[in-house]
Design a protein that fits this description.
The chain is 53% helix and 11% strand. By secondary structure, it is mostly helical. The radius of gyration is 20 Å and the shape is globular. This is DUF4194 domain-containing protein.
Length: 219
């Protein structure tokens, strides 16, 4: 087991992420003894395993108690350890919301893209699907049309997309943006999803309701 464990740890550190269907990654997910050994080995280095059943990859990250030691403290503290500017972080959140939120809804319902309106009495018994069958891509042009100007303009938008690609958050093909290996791992769904759904979305709905009310008054 030591050799397999060494190989998996080395790959996680060198490659940053490993497909969950990889034999060693699968072993870490289903073999309790191997998983505990992996977590202990990573913990000895101040790291922790990142995985969730909805993500297509597994990865590693710093343990929370190690962040200040690695990234500094006080005036030297970095607000984000990826080196992203504020408009880059904002773009990342927008992309996450447009790709991961719909994907998670499909995964929970066990449906593929285009099958949302079809009933399936055995859907809950199906395994959770991954990949582009459930994670739909978004158009770069449409994303820029909707958010580009408030995210720094054309040059900043293109630069930040390149940085998100380099960091492994997204993949880009034919001017389409797809989920990258780390998009569903490095961002905490449980914390961010309610803020988006109950925060930003609630504000939009409130604004829409106000506009409807004003229309009715004018009429």
């Amino acid at each position: 087991m030591d050799q397999a464990l060494n190989i998996l740890v080395a790959r996680l550190l060198a490659q940053r992420f490993v497909l969950r269907k990889d034999p060693l990654a699968r072993r870490a997910l289903i073999d309790e003894v191997f998983r505990e050994s992996l977590e202990h080995r990573l913990a000895d280095c101040g790291l922790q395993l990142l995985e969730n059943p909805y993500a297509e990859h597994i990865a590693v990250a710093l343990q929370p108690q190690m962040e200040e030691w690695v990234f500094g403290e006080g005036d030297a503290w970095l607000s984000n350890n990826m080196g992203l500017p504020r408009d880059g972080i904002a773009l990342l959140v927008v992309v996450w919301a447009l790709i991961i939120l719909p994907k998670r809804e499909r995964q929970i319902a066990r449906v593929a893209i285009g099958s949302e309106d079809q009933s399936d009495m055995f859907g809950a018994e199906k395994p959770i699907e991954h990949g582009e069958g459930v994670a739909q891509g978004i158009s770069e042009d449409a994303l820029y049309a909707d958010f580009g100007k408030v995210l720094g303009g054309k040059m900043r938008f293109a630069t930040n997309l390149g940085q998100l690609t380099k960091l492994g958050f997204i993949n880009r093909r034919n001017r389409m943006i797809y989920e990258g290996p780390l998009l569903d791992l490095m961002i905490d769904y449980a914390k961010l999803a309610p803020r988006i759904i109950n925060g930003a979305l609630a504000d939009i709905l409130k604004l829409t309701g106000t506009q409807i009310a004003e229309t009715e008054v004018d009429a």
